[in-house]
Amino acid sequence: MKAIFLDGSPKYKDSNSLYILNGLAEKLSLHCEITWADARRSEVGNIAAAISTSDVVVIGSPLYVDSIPSHLLDFLEQIAQSLPRRHHNTHIYTIVNGFYDASQNHIAIKMAKIWCERCKFIWGQEMAAGAGDGAA
After folding, report:
1. Residue 38 has pLDDT above 90, yes or no
2. Is residue 123 scored above 70 in pLDDT?
3. Per the count of CB atoms within 10 A, which of 48, 82, 98, 127 is most buried?
4. Mean pLDDT confidence for 26-52
5. Is 98 within a domain?
């Protein structure tokens, strides 16, 4: 199985999103060929091509103002425009880590679902993680 792990955090290091994605990747590494992408630095064309041939995309993102960060939204929009307009068998999974109450993540998750539908991907599942960043 081929998977893309997309880090949607604006942080360059020590992000909770990357921590969660790394933990998941560690568990799946024996069963998956994992390609890493970063919404801040990755080339849209390369990632769009990789996504179109992948079985799974896992998007890890923090909650920013009750939605996904703007740079990730822009990156996903560019991917949507770069994909060929056809049905894809790629499953999308989203992990959103936010404030203390994980239910606040529902808008960010809905944004990911709308992107999934627009790209004609298959929605897999979401995880809303609460408790936010432990840094004061």
Report:
1. yes
2. yes
3. 98
4. 92
5. yes
- Establish if 134 belongs to a structural domain: no
Contact 17, 95 (CB under 8 A): yes
d(CA 32, CA 1) in angstroms, rounded, equals 5
**Domain range spanning residue 98?**
2-129
Query: Does position 86 have pLDDT exceeding 60, yes or no?
Result: yes
The number of distinct structural domains making up the chain is 1
Q: What is the mean pLDDT of residues 12-33?
A: 91
Helix (H, G, I), strand (E, B) or coil at 29: coil
Domain annotation covers residue 136: no
Instruction: Indicate which CATH number applies to the domain containing 13.
Output: 3.40.50.360
128 in Cβ contact with 66 (< 8 Å): no
Which two structure tokens, joined as six digits, stand for 37?
């992408």
Quick one: which of 58, 22, 61 has its CA closest to 40? 61
Buried b (16+ CB within 10 A) or exposed e, 43-71: ebeebbebbbebebbbbbbbbbeebbbee
**Collapsed DSSP state (helix, strand, coil) of residue 9:** coil
Instruction: Determine what percent of the chain is predicted with pLDDT higher than 70.
Output: 93
Q: Read out DSSP for 37-87?
A: EETTTS-HHHHHHHHHT-SEEEEEEE-BTTB--HHHHHHHHHHHHHS-SS-
